[in-house]
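Support case: user asked for a sample of complex input and structure output to validate their parser. Sending the pair below.
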Amino acid sequence: MIEIAVQKELLGSIGKMDLNVTLSIESKSFVALSGQSGSGKTTLLRILAGLEHARGKIRVDDELWLDGTHCLPPQQRGIGFVFQDYALFPNMSVLENLLFVRKDKALAKQLLELTELTELANRKPATLSGGQKQRVSLCRAMMNRPKLLLMDEPLSALDPTMRNKLQHEILTLHKNFGTTTIMVSHDPSEIYRLSSRVVVLSQGKVIQDGDAKSVLLRTQGSQKFSFEGELLDIVKVDVIYIAIIAIGQQIVEVVLDGSEAKALHVGDSVSISAKAFAPMIQRLEK
Amino acid sequence: MLETLKALEFTPFLVSFKLASITTAILFIISLLLAWSLSQSKSRYKPIFESITALPIVLPPSVLGFYILYALSFHSPIGRFFQDVLGIKLVFNFTGLVVASCFYSLPFMVQPLQSGFEALPKNMLEASYIAGKSKLKTLFCVALPNIKPALMTAVIITFAHTVGEFGVVLMVGGSIPGETKVASVAIYEMVETMDYTMAHIYSAIMVSISFCVLLGVYIFNRKQSHPVGGIA
């Protein structure tokens, strides 16, 4: 069980901001930390790692990591940390990166096998692809069998295919080692697939906390679909209006009547939802 | 011409290189810890320490030489302590020259190392701390092996700069042949005594050596210049 109650004053994108987070996290759970840029996610992760000071209290099982002025240094916390930019040691080979954390060849071998990196054990990080580097970083973080694994947007620099593959590997490692994990992520599908709980931060405070489905699904009441998008244009066609809306990477058209068209302006953020119809679903050939 | 070359006295060069080697070795150890602490420090007093470290770059050698001469002489508590308690005389001998050179060349070792450490990705060092490694272990196993170009620059420039020093050496060491008469002082004396032929030869040797050293550093750094850290 991890009990967190921390406060810290931050300089955010819109001036001073108070990070004030109180959370308790079950052992062996997988928590996704989400929220807009500058909401304090990375800072919270760094406070948990002992890389930044804060006021308050952090208790992990029977250990006090932070209690008022007492702050356990990162060296003594026994955690794993996966950085967005991998942070591998360029002077060491893949295997040496792992063994630097702990001289446990059997564990290193097991981790490399799980992540299909055995062949690359003697390569230097500079010769690896982004996905391979992040897998090494993940293995390195697991080398001291951490009580807590922290991941700061570990997959955001990777392409979608590699992301899928690594999500699967993160899940495998989580199942094999049962490590309590906190991951910062913006990707709903990633959060849904990996985490058992989602905590959303805004302006340094927790604004949503629940299971992935209840936090991520944006539908209300009898809505079957609900998407958020940006209104790009409103075109008049005969007596009706057509709104052009960007949803993620796609553009859709929605028919509006005159009063709706007047109430909306180009550039507005809009939600598009539908009720009571049967959507068709077809598998896309790759 | 051949006779002139035969009469060439290499002792001043040997004294210069011996002095530069010992100074570089001592400064490497001192500066490694100093540069590492400065690079990791967030103290508000850091600029004061940085300024003190950089002083020898801007001070006239005569000022530095004068203070060092005074500090090492029997008139100062430091000089007296060394002479009375340890029995070491620190002026007008080789030991004094080494001490003076260490002050004079300090910034040339500290600054490249500090910039090298500061250019390392912060996450890389943090990853080492999280792996349970102390700051000292991180310095030797992670930081130092990844700043090779800066390390090379620091060592070679310190060596070359010590070979090239003149004012401080003259003031603290004088010109005792085989003991404190380094190449630059020997050239100065040759010009004073209007022995221009020897002055030319000595100067040409100094120019050649300095050029080769610098060329070596630039070629090495060019070969090493690939990005360090995560995203390549």
